[in-house]
Amino acid sequence: MGDFSSQTISHIDREFIAELLGKGERLDGRAFNEYRDIQIEANVVPAKAEGSAMVQLGDTSVVAGVKVLVGEPYPDSPDEGVIMVTAEMSPIASPLFELGPPKEDAIELARIVDRGVRESQMVDAKALCIEEGKKVYMVFADVYPLEYDGNLIDASSIAVNVALLTTKFPEMKLEEKELIATGEIKSLPVTNIAVEHTVVKIGKHLILDPVLKEEFVQDCRLTMAIDEKDNFTALQKGGGTGAMSLSLIEEAMDMALDAGKIIREKIDASVKAIK
């Protein structure tokens, strides 16, 4: 995620990666436009979350858990519920992460994944309203990296998608200013599925789903959220100050589009597996 590269990778490694890319090769033998092996398991912490998922992307793994609470709406959107993504990076996932309050990298990860959910209007916020101006459902998706070997963004995006898709929670209603459970169990009003895909630029080369050592030498990254209709719903550049030409951006978008279909199929299969 962050700019750890100056302390964690040698000039020899940098030159080796650059030479490999020049030959059309990568450290782990993948094609430039190929994801690592992806394993998705839904409903991994049913006792602690209304929806959850674990995603393993090569040697990167994350868990996402969804909690649904009832609260008051924001004043400027009295008829809409709240959807928010947070992230917590623990040293258990990587020695690069430190204990304590959320650092810049955790905040950035949460913001990028959150933007993919919001800009895609994945969850119908108006359908989360219990009573306008008084009570709404508040949906919190929390991301916890378990192991970090690059590309936490895509792994977290996939995990959050699956966790939201499989969330079940008790329906509530407001009667005489009191919240009462109706006895019904609801699913989240998911109206769109948009997954984020990250392409990084190293020199003149673009590669999808970077491992950690590739992240260390990247000039910059482009993360793209793509929905079921192949619409680009959010784009986020980061990971360095390097520039990307319009032609490279178009190339990155094509790579993400091709990969998106495979990821959505895996998400669908994981959700169906628990139904």
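That was protein one. Protein two is written in the same sequence-then-structure order:
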Amino acid sequence: MESNLDYAVGRLERILLDLSSVVVGFSGGIDSTYLAVMANKVLGNAATKLVTADSPSLPRDELQDCQRLAQVLGLDLTVVRTAEFENRAYLKNDALRCFYCKSELMDALGPIARERGSVVVLGVNYSDRGDYRPGQRAASEKDARFPLLEAEMTKAMIRDHAKLLGIPNHDKAQAACLSSRVPYGTPITLSVLSRVERAERYLKSLGMAQVRVRDYDTFARIEVNPQDLLQCASNGALIDFELKALGYRYVTLDLGGFASGNLNSALSSDHKLDVIQPGSYIARGDA
């Protein structure tokens, strides 16, 4: 009997074949990497173009990872500069920040796709359903497709198949843009993002792969995987010194551990919640 993974991979291959030619929004995470590898496998190199959006919200280490991965995997990558930091609505950092960001991404990827006669595809997976992701609504409104979601491929499936295919970042920790570290309602600034990036780079140098430094002006709230809490606490004096040198007055450790989209919990029911569904978006709550 065909396994769920085999069935999902088959569906993904058929979806990609129907698309014929794709431009992959490439972040260097496992979802977009797996999507790029599968598109290249099904459609070939000439019909698979990777584009990485570079802006101040992308850590330099992540940009370098994108470039290294593309080279190792033999994928065609272009890096484009996006302009979300010229958008006052984005810098305001309200609940639709990700909408403005993804809209800017599509404005950058769209012309490349049209010139090639391609479709923009993004690495949204089936496990992302039910999360608050207004950015995906922005992408959908500009005709992006989400083949992994459409094929009902979960994060676990993607990691498992990526490992079988020998994709080197199959177990890479989740990543997100640096702006996601700033609470909604607090303006995004280059100095804040630079401070967060340096703080997280230091923590990773201690061996903690999954790190978030949530920036509350004078406070830094550190999130790491539960198994790394003890290590983080045992290095407390060093971490306190290093982060205070970056300008924080208080350095705290979240005992609940890392949680993706943690700051979304502050959103009230007054906000419009964009919830991912296969092929559609369901708005819950009041606009």
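The domain at 4-165 is CATH 3.40.50.620 (Rossmann fold). Keep this in mind for the problem set.
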